Every structure is written in structure tokens, then in C-alpha cells.
Amino acid sequence: MGMTATAAPVSVELEGGAFKVLGWNPPRSEPAKGWASIFAVYTGSGDVPPLLGHYSIEAGALVFRPSYPLAPGVNYRAVIRPPGGGTPVEKIFDGTPRRNTPSARVERVYPTADILPSNQLRLYIYFSASMSRGEAGQHIHMLDEHGKVLPGVFLPGEELWDPSFQRLTMTLDPGRIKRGLTSNEKMGPPIVEGKRYVLVIDRDWPDARGVRMLEGFRKAFRGGPADRNPPNPKQWKITAPAVGTSEPITLRFPEPMNYPLLQRMLHVTGTQGIVAGTVSIDKQETEWRLTPQEPWKAGGYQLVVDTALEDLAGNHIGQAFDIDVFQRVTEHIASNTISLPFVVR
Amino acid sequence: MLRRLTLVRVAVGLSLAAALAVTVAAARRPARVSADLESGKAQLKSAGALAFGPDGVLFVGDSIGGEVVALDTNDHTAPPSAAKIDVQGVDVKIAALVGVTPDQIMINDLKVNPISKNVYLSASRGRGPDAMPLIARVNSAGQVSLLSLDNIPHNSVALTDAPAADASARRNPRMMTITDMNYVNGNLLVAGLSNEEWSSALRSIPFPFKKAAEGATLQIWHSSHGKYETQAPVRTFVPYSISGQQYILAAYTCTPLVKIPVSELQPGAKVKGETIADLGSGNQPLDMVPYHKNGHDYILIANTSLGMLKLRADNLSTYKPIESPTVTDVAGVPYDKLGNFKDVQQLAQLDSSDAVILTGKPGSGPPWAPGPAIGPLNLQTIALP
């Protein structure tokens, strides 16, 4: 096989994500050492392998289609090595430019209360756009009342995202929260009752495109007493709607509850099955409402609550976060629920 | 003591399961397990924790997809001799293969195929929700290739309950991040953390996978000083045999190392780990490799801030559980700090005398949260110390 001379010099064009060799007639079959021995595309420098991809002959030209889409901000170096020897021909292509217009911001952080228990377990940070992972430790800070950054507040390296990377769950160091552990005894809880704090999220946190946010975020709060009591449904208050209306049913808690769990761990059933409607959460997560799609019919209903519903400190119905007696029990883990009856009149 | 484990990535690894697991599996395996896998495109949405099962089957934790995928790597030829792997800039090479800058490659886990001794890495191409999952293979010659997922014998098992079929609902934000997996006695053990509720579970899933509903779910608890009990998500764990009994050694998100008899891992069980070592505060175990050398048992632990630790594990069964408040910062089974291994991000067992480590300088964050390692990331074989 040899390089067939043509009138035009050999070159490469990039079109529609494919690299095409111009000015050279390839042989009908792939050479013994593979097409990559003649034509390959590289990113990066040094001793690196060529891009993965597939070769084909299209309209008499050798075409290379990368297995992965071309990425913004990457340069591609196409190299043709004449089969019979000779000077390789190189051509550099600039990838699509990186976008750099900021668009992301922190929309809200839960809990929204101004006082958080000293055994607050998790924070939920909602972003307006998808973010990059691996950045939380560098860009989320807790400041004390003097503006000093507090170390060791969160579980380092643990970023629990939702699938869209728009909600981040940050866990405060449970070793400092659980009673009896050395971290708890030596360092104390991450939040101390009576102290003031500011949660700071840096603007420099890159979104999924690698672009910094529009603005940073600050939330000031004060440490409250530890909450080691499981939520008690007997203390909750239901306000039943009036028949024939589309008023919401309202459930009020004496303490703030876990926002994401409020979204999915409560529902209402009636004689017709589950009542379809829209859930809203208000008053610093102390109020849950369901506004029905259809007006209420008279009769008895049940407000069904998953016992896994947690308060801010990770206590859930019937069980505190750290309980002080361990009873060995063997039980099947099921989605246990409680039902709170109400009547629509 | 305890302070959680710092993992520098979403899903982490631990490696040692391989040799142990396959030994166990080989004894009970009637035929090649890959016969139960179906060829086709493996629809991974993410590639996190890895574990090897029998016959070169690689389990991949797909947290975003909410499942574990078993892949037949078709890589079950033993090497003619033990090879020393030394690849500088393995992240740079993977980036070159898939056409991105190295900062867009995140290595999520590292395991060694116990049969072929080839090294497998799970990685992400990109850092956002659209990051593409990658499974890279590094052979004894140091060549880096990607496992093609387009047509590969595979099977999968769903980990999450199906979300409510509410078409009007936004995309379900609930997600279980798979932190570690190991194949033990014909079951894949899967540890995970929920991004919503604290209560979490260890799952035991028989392999070959049958239905999503199969497999035991159990709660893991931690006791501090016999007084307080807390549900304790497992962050990293490894199969281990003590006096002929099969255990897992586990590190909790908040506590030190514990041992749990595998016999207790029954469906619906509420299991309490017994603390055997307390490595002090401000650090987190990343990966653990148990081994035997010169008549003694050890556990090599890669740790975020303490570097590499060598736990002296002789007579592990004789150590009484740590149940009294620890006055000192460190308690339990004794260990040595090994100063000659720096910046270890991943650790996996290669064979009875060697391990593979992935090293890279810590990220640019504060000391207590440095963030992902800054490349280049280097892969090398080390002799178990």
C-alpha cells in the first residue's frame, strides 16, 4: 500500500464531529497495523494514546468518528503518517469554545429556620442549575460569630447529589453528633447552643459546565438545644378542609421537619383511594399542606405518614437518632406507616 | 476516634474482596456464571464502586441508575508471571482516549481482577449529571484501554424501589449512593447512603441476579460504649476470616472499624457491629486490604489524613470490643503508620504479596476537605509491607 499522489496536498477537515482526510485515496482494506497507524487524532500532549473512535471509508475518503463527543475547550491534533514513510502531516482543531456566562445560583437551603438544633444532621442545598461534583468541601464553609472558618463541620468528601446534580445533601459530622464518641467528647457538636454561625457557599463553585455561579450564598443562624426526641404524631395538628371546597388539608408540627422527606412521606387516602393534589410546605417546615385536584367529598379520610419521616436531627417517628438502649430485635424492615384520621364535613 | 471516612469521591472502593471472594465462589460454582448474562449494550448511567465476582465478572455500582450491573469482562486468563504495574498519569491517558482535559476525569474506584491481575478503574468523563461512565482496564504492560459497554454480556439488579408513577412529578430526587460492594459467599453485599433519610441499609443480593425484589436488606447499627445506639451507614468494608468464621470488617460513616459476622447478615436483621479499632479523630479509611505475611495477619488501610496504616490483626478475635469511653484518641487493635506511602487515593489487593495504589496530590481545598486529587494520578504496584 502506498500513498496515492493527488493534485491537492493531504489535509484534514472536521465536520459534524468527524475528521476526514482530504487529498488521499485510502486503500480498500484496512492496513495490517490498523487505520490508526496512518491517521489518528490526539488530545493532550506527551505519551498519550489517540482518541478512541471508528474509521470508515466514505466517498473515497478516510473518516474518523470519535467514540465520545467533542468537548468544549479541548484542542484536537489530527496526524497523518504516510504509509511509506515521510513527514507526518498535522492539523490542529480548536474544539468548541467553553461557555463562561454564569447562570447558576443557590436557590435555597433547608432547613430554613434561623435556629438549628446542635445535633442538626443534614443540610439540603438547592441550586438553580446542575453543578460539578467534587467541589463541596472547598466551597461550603461554616463561619463562627467572628467570621472564622470552622474545620471539620461536615463529613469530608461526602457529596450526596440528586440525579440532576441540582440538590446537594451535606451531612454534618455524625461522629461529633453521636453521644459517647470521641469526636463528640473532644470536639463537641458542630453546632453549639447559643452560638451564632454563618453558612457560606462560594460563588467560585463551578456549575456542570465549569462556570462559576452568578453569586454566592450566606445563611446566618443560631445554635439551639439538641433535639433527641422522636417526632410525636400526638402533638401534630390537622386542620380538615370543608366539604365541596378545594382548600388544603393542613398538618402542623411543633418543630421543623425534614423538607425532602415531607415531600414524599405523607399522603391522604379516602374511600376513593389516594387523594391527588399538590403538596406545599411552609412556615419553616412546620406546616404541610395538600391541595386536592378535585373538591373534597364528605367522609372520613386518613393522613398516612411514613414512620421514616425525620425531624432536623435525624430523629424519626418512634425512634431517636441515637437511642440509649439497644434491644436486639429481628424485624423485617418495611415501610411502616401511621394513619391520622380526619373527617371532611 | 471516630470521625467519618473521608472519601475523596462519591463512590469508593475497597478492594480486597477479590481474592477472598473468588476463592469462596470457586468452591460452590457449578458452571461459568457468565452463562447467566445476556449480551447487549450495558446501560450504565454512572460507574462508581467496583467489585469482582466469579469468572472475571465485574460488578459496577451505578448510583445514578439506581442499580448494580454485572459485566463479563471476558478477562479470565491468569498471567504467566506476576507483573509490576507502573503507569504515570493514568488519568491523563484516560482523558486522551475520550477526548477531554484530565481535570474532567474523576477516578471513582479501583479493583484488580483476581484471575488476570489486570487493574480496573471506574471513572467519570465530566463532573456534572451528564458525565459519561467509563470502565478502564490497565494490563500488566501498563496499557490503558476502555471496556466497551456496547455489546457485553451483562445483567443488572435495581437497588431502589421504583418511584411513584406520577407523570407530573419532577425527576425523582431521591438517590442511593453506593459506597462499597463486595462479593461474599455467593452474595453481593452493597452498602449505600441515601441523599434523603439517614436510615440506610446493607443489601445482600444473590448472584447471578434474579429479580430486584430478591436480596436481604438489613440495618447496621453502631453502639458507643454500650450506651447509645445509632443506625450507622457502612462506608467501606471488606470480607475477612477470623478463626475460620467469615466476617466483614466495616468502617462506618461516623465511627471506627467494626467486625460483623456474615452469619448475622440475614434478611431483615438488625445487626450491631463490634468495634475493634478506633483510629482517632480527623481521618477516614478509604480502602482496606487484609493479608498474611511472615506468619502474621495484617490489614493495610489507606487513610485520608493518616496516610497508610498497617493494622496488626493477629488474634483479632481476642480483642475485646471497645465499649468504654476512650480517653486516648486511639484505641483497640494496634497499628503502625507507614510514612513511605504518600497521597494514596485508592488501594486494592493484587495478590497475596502485592497491592496496587493510585496516588495523586490532594485537592486544593482546606486540609479537612481537600477535594478530589489533583492529577496526574499514578498507578503502581507495591509490596504489602
How would you portray this structure in words?
The complex is a heterodimer of chains A (about 350) and B (about 375). Chain A contains 4 helices and 24 strands. Chain A has helices spanning about 135-140, 175, 180-185, 260-265; strands at about 10-15, 20, 40, 55-60, 60-65, 75-80, 90-95, 105-110, 115, 120-125, 140-145, 160, 165-170, 195-200, 215-225, 235-240, 250, 265-270, 275, 275-280, 285-290, 300-305, 320-325, 335-345. Chain A has 3 domains: about 10-95, Immunoglobulin-like; about 105-225, Sandwich (Immunoglobulin-like), CATH 2.60.40.3710; about 235-345, Sandwich (Immunoglobulin-like). In chain A, β4 (about 55-60) and β5 (about 60-65) form a beta hairpin. Mean pLDDT of chain A is about 90; it is low at about 1-5 and about 325-335. Chain A is mainly beta and about 350 residues long. Chain A has a 4-stranded antiparallel beta sheet, with no helix packed on it. The radius of gyration of chain B is 20 Å and the shape is globular. Chain B has helices at about 15-30, 90-100, and strands spanning about 50, 55-60, 65-70, 85, 105-110, 120-125, 130-140, 145, 155-160, 175-185, 185-195, 200-205, 215-225, 230, 235-240, 245-250, 255-260, 270-280, 285-295, 295-305, 305-310, 330, 335-340, 345-350, 355-360, 375-385. In chain B, strands 10, 11, 12, 13, 14, 15, 16, 17, 18 and 22 form a 10-stranded mixed beta sheet that branches. In chain B, strands 1-2-3-9 form a 4-stranded antiparallel beta sheet. Chain B has a 4-stranded antiparallel beta sheet with strand order 4-26-25-24. Chain B contains 2 helices and 26 strands. With about 375 residues, chain B is mainly beta. Chain B has one domain: 5 Propeller (Tachylectin-2, Chain A). At the A-B interface, α1, β12, β13, α2 and α3 of A face α2, β13, β14 and β18 of B.
